[in-house]
Amino acid sequence: MIGLNTAAVYVLQTLGSLYLLIVLMRFVLQLVRANFYNPLCQFIVRATQPLLKPMRRIIPSLGGLDMSSLLLAILVQLALMALTLLLTYGTTGNPLQLLIWSIIGVTALFLKIFFFALIISVILSWVAPGSHNPGAELVNQICEPALAPFRRILPSMGGLDISPILAFMVLKLLDMLVINNLAAMTMMPDILRLLI
Fold first, then answer.
1. 32: domain range?
2. Which of 99, 106, 145, 194 is the most buried if burial means most Cβ atoms within 10 Å?
3. Separation between Cα atoms, residue 156 and residue 138, nearest integer Å
4. Structural domain count of the chain
5. pLDDT, tens only, 97-121
């Protein structure tokens, strides 16, 4: 029975985390003003539309940001954590604590999206500079708002762009100092830390 629960938790975390990533990407795409005619953006819109469409009738946008996609990401994270706790310990725990853990988890995933987009962007700049592949264009659209403040601060280095290094450092510091400390302060169980 324990092996069956472990397998169920694995499948739940894998599929749930994938859908959570897609939902949060919908928020990120609107945040960075990505080109929604990109085929990858179209996939994300189609995958999230069934749940977002009814939510949009109730939850308004705020400053041009789709708050319904952010709320859906938090709700998906909350359901994922509650089901993981239920399968592992037989209880879902305190709903308020689950909500706090969900917000921490979504924030951590938000930072990871930018971190991995930066890694992909750096690699693409070496192997396929100026690529017009839909994936490469989407990665560049995600990274540009994160890199722009550093590019304004840093002097020109003769074609060498070190702004991703500073962006990596800031994202890693936010993860280490904010996310990890919040998870520790709220006594998040180790089984749930795998989700963030």
1. 2-193
2. 106
3. 25
4. 1
5. 999 999 999 999 999 999 999 999 9
